[in-house]
Amino acid sequence: MVGGFVGRAVGAAVLAVALVVVSTAAAIWWTARQDSEPPSDAIVVLGSAQYNGVPSSIFEARLEHALQLWREGVAPVVVTVGGKRGGDEFTEAEAGRDYLEQAGVPAEDLVPVTDGVDTLESMRLVAAEFGQRGWSTAVLVTDPWHAMRAERMAEDSGIDAASSPTRQGPAVQTRTTQFRYILRETAAYLLYRVTGESVAGAPGIG
């Protein structure tokens, strides 16, 4: 009888974990399909890889979307985010700022936040920048699958955040790619909710 009870308890625990994983993945998928563009203090572009100051294709897709939002008047300022890896000359934030300035955004409308090494640290640094400037609201630009975790980390850092994910770039090209990103983001989101820590990884995951 004791063995049967233990077996049922283990089965119930496994089922509960499976339900949490599936519901989280479904929420990530649902959030990825949303597009919120409320008037805000700033558009915040989450960084990704750059090569000697040139944004990667993933990063470029985010920057182009942020540029469109800025042109539409969603916010007067674009905040570019991201530090640099060992050996890099430029930070992701600097590469993003330079890209947008070359695309026509005035330098005074660009704010690089250059020290973040992952999403959580970046959101905390952005929140500190917001606090210094008296800002509170942001539209986050990142890949669709990263949007839910980025929003959660921004909100937990004190930013009133919405997300407007890019619909272009390698992260959304194929269903296989989308499925892989959803799985990885599900793990990263659950890790954050359980531990309060971020996780470094592929572009849009850390």
TrEMBL record:
<dbReference type="InterPro" id="IPR003848">
    <property type="entry name" value="DUF218"/>
</dbReference>
<dbReference type="InterPro" id="IPR014729">
    <property type="entry name" value="Rossmann-like_a/b/a_fold"/>
</dbReference>
<dbReference type="GO" id="GO:0005886">
    <property type="term" value="C:plasma membrane"/>
</dbReference>
<dbReference type="InterPro" id="IPR051599">
    <property type="entry name" value="Cell_Envelope_Assoc"/>
</dbReference>
<feature type="domain" description="DUF218">
    <location>
        <begin position="41"/>
        <end position="187"/>
    </location>
</feature>
<dbReference type="Pfam" id="PF02698">
    <property type="entry name" value="DUF218"/>
</dbReference>
<protein>
    <submittedName>
        <fullName>Uncharacterized conserved protein</fullName>
    </submittedName>
</protein>
